[in-house]
Amino acid sequence: MVDIVRRRYLYFGISLLVIIPGFVALLIWGLPLAIDFTGGSLLQVRFETGTLPPPDAVRQIYDEFGFIDSLIQTSGNDAIIVRTKHMEDSTKVQIVDEMEKQFGGPITVDRYETVGPSIGQEVALRAAGAVALAALGIMLYITFAFRGVEHAFRYGISAIIAMLHDVFVVIGVEAILGQFLGWEVDALFLTALLTVIGFSVHDTIVVFDRIRENSNIYRRLPYETVVNHSIVQTLVRSINTQLTVMFTLLALVIFGGVTIRHFVLILLVGVLSGTYSSIFNAAPILVVWENREWRNWFRPKKSSESLA
Amino acid sequence: MKRYRTLIVIVLILVVAIWVDLPNNPGIHLGEYNRNIDTRLGLDLVGGVQALLEADLPEGEQPTPENMGTAKTIVENRVNGLTGVTEALVQLAGNNRIVVEVPGAQDPEQAIATIKETGLLEFVHMGSNPLPEGTFVQTDFGQTGDPIPQPTSTGEPGAVTPTPSDQLLHTVMTGETLKTVNVQRNQAGQYVIDFTLSPEGTKTFGDYTSQNIGQFLGIVLDKQVISAPRVNDAITEGQGVITGGFTSESANSLAIQLRYGSLPIPLKVVTSQTVGPTLGQDSLRKSLIAGFIGLSVVILFMSLYYRLPGVIADLALIVYALITFALFKLIPVTLTLPGIAGFVLSIGVAVDANILIFERLKEELRSGRTLRQAIDLGWARAWPSIRDSNLSTLITCAILFWFGSTFGASIVKGFSFTLAIGVLVSMFTAIIVTRNFLHVVLDNIELARHLRLFGL
């Protein structure tokens, strides 16, 4: 039988290999927050003539209206996206008029968003609150659902650790890709993150549920064996579910529109990480806890078996 | 026989779902009850404007829930009065915000300006024919060539669609002349509204009422009739009473409208979002194609890997998709791009329950159980996993929904709602529908000898 539990430190290591670069990216570059959280305005206009004006000319118009820190991005070959501080609707109308005058030809506003500065902060705070609340709710539920098992709260906490693993993976990937692909953390990203949390726990529970069942059947076997047995029994299911979810998400990435590509890719990363963490992190953590292995972590090792 | 009864119920549900899903569904029209069944598309798909309004009060002051409720009603009336608007959505968000969504708004700046404007309360002369409540009227006050609001239904099912009145009504005076408005009970114990007028209003009103006893005086808010009381006496002292079979509720709501024809609290726009119509159309088409492809791949995978049960799970999956979509139309759920993504994702999750069950089924078969036993045991053993894992997803959905509601982030709200519906329906289809189909198939074909069909 495949022995996943025995190699647990290897799998923890693989997790760290993914998480640490993300953390470093987060420390260096930070998260690219969208105006949903920072406040500000975003204007996406399309030039019907099909020719884009030079970005500097656009910037100059914004400068004239007192928005000296405008960020200008091209989108496709006939549209630009401009991000600025919060502005009034009337200013926007004037700016669009000015662009039409200077660059000739009609301009269509494809998208315009404006978020007041104070509300952005409130949204960010509330978002963090939502994640914390979700974690708490799920932990309480698991502890309740596993109340018949010894150390029920361990299951809750291990599930939360695996969930945090996925949150870190997703945020780290976002920090790295945000730097290179210009992705932004917006309300949609947050939705994806919360969905990943739900999925991650969903997956973990399936494995834990098997452990719960097996601990009653194989009372004489060592805990480690029971856990490994349970992981292996649910392995096919984990992989198959992962596959079906991936099929649908991949279809969305490949054939879906550009508008949700970022959202779907984040989901894909998170779902992959969620399956990994429930097999290779969540259940092995239970074993680490049962054996209180942390007592040996910092001692000189006699045998390398536990680190294999 | 119980099996066939369940099957009949499933088929009935399915027939209703398919009927609702029909693209040209005629809607339900039974006597007084009228209800159209359409797919509602969100702003990101059809274009339009969304604004989050916040009570603009001094630091530390909170608006009362009554005031917010009144403000919401007024904003709702105004938005529905905009030209070309049919499915505007106005909702309270948190305790000091209002979300306004106007799909397909032609002129977003105009829309937002109209919302923020203070309303206009007029008293108009109606002669001897009172117009019913809700009628849009034209008055001779402030005729500056502004577009006259077009009649629109208020969106409530079963509401009587007001018909417009073509005649131009004379405005006697505006709401500015009202000084105080109160709800009282008269000697007979009926609810009445008493009001006092400014000196100027006293004169105008005195002149009008003494000449028009027995005629009807229409009270019009933003060109829409809210009440049409009859003038019983000449009112020259600048104070009067409106009677008319009010309940405590209707009297209070009329009093509020009289008092605050303008908004009870000032509102400011804290966020607004405008989406051009072209951007969404393309995304919608692409996401639907993607959904179809995703679904097909999943169906193929299930039937290849799990054989006969897989094919049955595929049938259940199609039932799932049909029921879920019917629910979207019935509730109705506004479909947004992330909502569609949530739906597509839930297809993947919906199969999970069946995968869990089938893996169990195989295990039971391997350990030598008969097919029937294995099916029942597979379901029974997989149930705790399905229950616990889906409940945790529902917990997340609830928290997302709450988060979305406080900020009018309808995209987040829509996503969590569609996902939650998906989870609930998938539990029904995976557990009841698949199992029932499987048993029915077993009843009719000698399958016990063909374990190969179960992938063993």
Q: Largest interface here, residues on each chain?
A: A-B, 71 and 72 residues
Q: Percent helix among the residues of chain B? A: 40-55%
Q: What string, H for helix and E for strand, traces the elements of chain A in order?
A: HHEHEEHEHHHHHH
Number of strands of chain A: 4
Low-confidence segments of chain A, given as residue ranges, are 303-308
Helix content of chain A: 55-70%
Instruction: Tell me the structural class of chain B.
Output: alpha+beta
Q: How widely separated are the two ends of chain A?
A: 17 Å
The CATH topology of the largest domain in chain B turns out to be Gyrase A, domain 2
Instruction: Work out the strand percent of chain A.
Output: 5-15%
Structural features, described:
The complex is a heterodimer of chains A (308) and B (456). With 308 residues, chain A is of the alpha+beta class. Chain A has 10 helices and 4 strands. Chain A has helices spanning 8-29, 35-38, 55-64, 89-103, 117-145, 152-181, 187-217, 223-255, 261-291, 294-297, and strands at 40-47, 71-75, 79-84, 107-115. Chain A has a 4-stranded antiparallel sheet. The longest helix of chain A is centred in the last third of the chain and has 33 residues, at 223-255. Mean pLDDT of chain A is 86; it is low at 303-308. Helix content of chain B is 51%, strand content 19%. Chain B has helices at 2-21, 43-46, 65-81, 108-116, 199-211, 248-259, 277-330, 337-366, 371-407, 410-444, and strands spanning 28-30, 33-35, 40-41, 48-55, 89-93, 97-103, 121-127, 138-139, 168-174, 178-185, 191-197, 216-221, 224-227, 239-246, 267-275, 334-335. In chain B, the strands form 5 sheets. Chain B has a 5-stranded mixed sheet with strand order 8-9-7-12-13. In chain B, a hairpin with a 2-residue loop joins strand 1 and strand 2 (33-35). In chain B, helix 1 (2-21) runs antiparallel to helix 7 and helix 9 (371-407) runs antiparallel to helix 10 (410-444). The longest helix of chain B has 54 residues, at 277-330. At the A-B interface, helix 4, strand 4, helix 5, helix 7 and helix 8 of A face helix 4, strand 15, helix 7, helix 8 and helix 9 of B. Strand 4 (107-115) of chain A pairs antiparallel with strand 15 (267-275) of chain B, so a sheet runs across the interface.
